[in-house]
């Protein structure tokens, strides 16, 4: 081997630049080598340069594969989406040798595109720019779902230039830009860019490399948003390796799920047990939902695909009870579809069984409440035992609530009016029974509506419970439900007859709400001021006075002032401060100061007609109470 050949090997070994390969030829020519030797040396040089290019290409491909492997590793242990996207953009910039790389995402809510990650950018305007959909080179990439490259951005007429984007690109100093789409299926969700501040030509391999990074970025975004679907996609790729084994396995799965569902039915399993069993066998995630069965219901019992999910309606006797939804298996084998449908059928059987048991319990609860209302002289020990079996705390304070769906008066000749009212009562009773069961109370259908007996929570008032019940029942039935509440019944079984008395009070409160055009609301007598005092069977005078002027009375007692006396004189004089000061023999400023104090205690609307009427009634009752007690 000649000395010159050894020189080329040394150059290859140390990775010298291409200009160094001219040196052996120059030295040989300078030393007087003949044409034949120079030709041989030139041939060796070209061979060495080809070897160098091959080695360089392999090193580049090795670096690219290493970067792609590192990116895949990042995705496998995804914890922070921003960190993964930053790593992708950094690697793309490094391997393509560009000055800048960045990634933009579409914002469907705002209807525009925004910068998510930038690397090498120095312009704050560029880093924060938001663009309308379809603008700039990125808009062209998003519209066509294909890569686009421009050697000179400002001279390229193929895409829509705007003042905003041109200003941002000019501020960053970009000239050559390559953009590739970030796609999820057929949808472009963003664009990955590599750019230089000088004119350059991007090679086909560089476009392909950036597209690979864009694919990783799209996967990272999809993984962060839909981890279950990503696991499903990976499972699908694995199953694609052995189709024959998969078809064999799906038959085994069908057999397994059949055995497990049969066991669940025999041993009293629940809906979630069915979902867990099917999830494990089918390799996805199955959930039961009471909504979202539209397309599956129309499919007549067959599982249907909705997006990347499979849905099977859960129905019985023409009634849709919900749906089983399988996530994470967009390509479902027909046998697995039948498995999902069979699971939906088993779910409907379990739901019907649970409904039957629930309705039986609701009837028992209704019977106990009927006895408290209609036969309070029943044996108290027996009543207490029945209440304990239903987990009703007979020692806790309870409130009786009367609930009703109040519809506008319709055509009396309407043949369907009666059936609608009957259906309304049934729906209301069903919703009230469920609410009573969850709160350890009782419910029964009565007088065209429903009566509930619910325990009061710590610090809860009857009015609070009435409003909560109206909201809960109205939300369940999706139409207004009016609820009137009684005063609290302290113990249920010491005087069972007080439940019937409380029910009459609740009904009077319900009727008052309708007369006051407050249908769809909940209230107790304490909410209705002196009207509530008239409605309440116990005539809680002290409670009414306390709620209305109690703060003024307490202030007088603490401070020795005469705010109550001033209020009496103020109303007696026709709410005239001038006549009030003559009645009290004080200066008019004193009257104004006292009335200002009253306003702070009672609120700024205390002189409104409705409040003023209640306050005057409370003053009269307070005066009568003082006269009786001698205070």
- The Cα radius of gyration reads 41 Å
Question: Major β-sheet, in short?
Answer: 6 strands, antiparallel
Number of helices: 23
Separation, N- and C-terminal Cα atoms: 130 Å
Derived structural class: alpha+beta
Q: In which order are the strands of the major sheet placed?
A: 3-2-1-6-5-4
Low-pLDDT ranges: 356-361
The helix content is 55-70%
| Percentage of residues in DSSP E strands | 5-15%
Overall pLDDT: 77
Work out the number of β strands: 15
Outline type: elongated
Task: Give a structural overview.
The protein is built from 23 helices and 15 strands. With 631 residues, the protein is an alpha+beta fold. The strands form three sheets. It has a six-stranded antiparallel β-sheet with strand order 3-2-1-6-5-4, with helices on both faces. Strands 12-13-11-14-15 form a five-stranded mixed β-sheet. It has a four-stranded antiparallel β-sheet with strand order 7-10-9-8. Strand 12 and strand 13 form a beta hairpin. Helix 2 (23-30) runs antiparallel to helix 3, helix 10 (243-266) runs antiparallel to helix 11 (271-282) and helix 10 (243-266) packs parallel to helix 13. The longest helix has 42 residues, at 35-76. The radius of gyration is 41 Å and the shape is elongated.
């Amino acid at each position: 081997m000649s000395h010159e050949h050894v020189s080329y090997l040394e150059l290859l070994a140390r990775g010298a630049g291409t200009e160094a390969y001219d040196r052996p030829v120059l030295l040989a020519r300078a030393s007087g080598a003949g044409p034949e030797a120079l030709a041989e040396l030139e041939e060796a040089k070209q061979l060495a340069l080809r070897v160098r290019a091959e080695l360089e290409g392999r090193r580049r491909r090795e670096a690219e594969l290493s970067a792609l492997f590192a990116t895949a590793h990042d995705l496998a242990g995804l914890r922070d989406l921003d960190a993964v996207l930053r790593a992708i953009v950094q690697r793309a910039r490094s391997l393509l040798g560009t000055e800048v790389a960045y990634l933009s995402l579409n914002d469907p809510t705002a209807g525009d595109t925004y910068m998510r990650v930038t690397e090498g950018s120095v312009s704050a305007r560029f880093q924060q720019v938001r663009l309308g959909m379809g603008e700039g080179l990125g808009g062209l990439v998003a519209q066509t779902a294909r890569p686009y490259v421009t050697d000179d951005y400002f001279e390229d007429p193929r895409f829509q230039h705007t003042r905003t984007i041109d200003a941002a690109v000019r501020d960053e100093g970009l000239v050559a830009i390559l953009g590739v789409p970030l796609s999820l299926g057929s949808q472009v969700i963003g664009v990955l860019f590599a750019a230089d501040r000088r004119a350059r030509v991007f090679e086909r391999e560089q476009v392909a490399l950036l597209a690979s990074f864009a694919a990783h970025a799209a996967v990272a975004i999809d993984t962060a948003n839909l981890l279950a679907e990503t696991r499903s996609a990976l499972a699908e790729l694995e199953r694609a390796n052995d189709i024959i084994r998969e078809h064999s396995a799906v038959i085994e799965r069908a057999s397994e799920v059949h055995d497990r569902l049969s066991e669940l039915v025999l041993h009293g399993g629940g809906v979630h047990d069915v979902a867990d069993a099917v999830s494990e066998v089918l390799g996805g995630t199955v959930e039961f939902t009471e909504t979202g069965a539209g397309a599956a219901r129309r499919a007549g019992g067959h599982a249907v695909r909705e997006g990347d999910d499979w849905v099977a309606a859960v129905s019985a006797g023409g009634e849709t009870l919900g749906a089983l939804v399988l996530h994470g298996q967009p390509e479902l084998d027909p046998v697995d579809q039948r498995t999902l449908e069979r699971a939906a059928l088993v779910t409907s059987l379990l739901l019907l069984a649970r409904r039957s048991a629930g309705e039986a319990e609701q009837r028992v609860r209704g019977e106990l409440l009927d006895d408290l209302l209609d036969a309070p002289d029943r044996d108290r020990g027996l009543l207490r035992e029945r209440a304990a079996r239903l987990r009703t705390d007979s020692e806790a304070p309870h409130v009786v609530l009367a609930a009703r769906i109040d519809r506008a008066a319709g055509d009396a000749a309407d043949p369907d009016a009666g059936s609608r009212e009957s259906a309304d009562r049934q729906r209301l009773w069903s919703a009230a029974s469920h609410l009573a069961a969850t709160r350890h109370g009782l419910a029964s259908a009565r007088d065209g509506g429903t009566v509930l007996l619910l325990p009061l929570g710590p610090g809860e008032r009857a009015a609070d419970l009435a409003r909560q019940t109206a909201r809960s029942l109205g939300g369940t039935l999706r139409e207004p439900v009016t609820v009137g509440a009684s005063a609290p019944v302290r113990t249920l079984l010491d005087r069972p007859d007080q439940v019937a008395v409380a029910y009459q009070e609740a009904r009077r409160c319900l009727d008052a709400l309708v007369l006051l055009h407050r249908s769809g609301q909940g209230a107790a007598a304490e909410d209705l001021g002196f009207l509530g005092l008239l409605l309440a069977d116990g005539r809680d005078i002290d409670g009414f006075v306390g709620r209305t002027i109690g703060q003024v009375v307490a202030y007088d007692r603490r401070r020795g002032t005469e705010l109550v006396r001033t209020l009496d004189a103020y109303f007696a004089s026709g709410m005239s401060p001038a006549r009030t000061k003559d009645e009290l023999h004080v200066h008019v400023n004193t009257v104004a100061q006292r009335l200002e104090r009253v306003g702070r205690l009672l609120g700024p609307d205390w002189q409104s007609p409705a409040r003023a009427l209640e306050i005057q009634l409370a003053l009269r009752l307070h005066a009568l109470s003082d006269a009786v007690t001698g205070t």
